[in-house]
Design goal:
Blueprint (H helix, E strand, L loop, with lengths): L4 H22 L4 E10 L5 E11 L6 E12 L2 E9 L3 E2 L4 E11 H7 L8 E14 L3 E14 L6 H13 L1
Antiparallel strand pairs: 1-2, 2-6, 3-4, 3-5, 3-7, 7-8
Length: about 170
């Protein structure tokens, strides 16, 4: 029995489909890594946590970033979570460092960690998801995880506050 054009076309289409699916699965994907987390803009009421995220783009075209979601826990206590739309692109065949600031009030920390004193260390688990719009693959969420310890700033002494106010008056 001689194959018809329709049978040959169907067989070729199925081969292309399977080869195409395999090629998509083996295609390099963007990578992201949480490089660190540090305190910034420390005041008497709050501080900003800065998440440093490095994104690697393996593609020959720029990679548009869509959004980022995050959640921080410590000893099974949820500290905060959120989502932010981010604008910008990761250069073709390049990397980009992104800093995500999150404001944390000391009162929130104190209520989450009764018994934690200023100057102590708090263990944390950071779960971050960076969403990018990848060519061919569409929107991808790149999960990132990091554990570590966060230093709780000590409350400044009265003399330090007085000196800070005097310095501001002098300017």
């Amino acid at each position: 029995m001689k194959p018809t054009r329709g049978t040959i076309w169907a067989a070729v289409s199925l081969m292309v489909l399977f080869v195409g699916c395999d090629a998509l699965q083996n295609m390099q994907k963007p990578k992201a890594s949480l490089k660190g987390m540090k305190l910034d803009n420390i005041s008497l009421e709050s501080a900003n946590l800065l998440f440093d995220v490095e994104i690697e783009n393996p593609y020959a075209v720029a990679l548009p970033m869509v959004n980022i979601d995050y959640g921080i826990t410590s000893n099974a206590n949820k500290l905060f979570a959120g989502k932010a739309d981010i604008a910008g692109t990761v250069p073709a065949n390049g990397t980009k460092m992104l800093s995500l600031p999150v404001k944390v009030t000391y009162m929130d920390l104190i209520s989450a960690f009764k018994g934690v004193r200023p100057g102590s260390k708090i263990p944390y688990q950071a779960d971050v998801g960076l969403s990018v719009n990848a060519p061919v693959l569409g929107v991808l969420r790149l999960p990132l995880n990091k554990t570590g310890e966060l230093d709780v700033p000590a409350v400044p002494k009265v003399n330090d506050i007085e000196q800070m106010l005097l310095d501001k008056i002098k300017k």
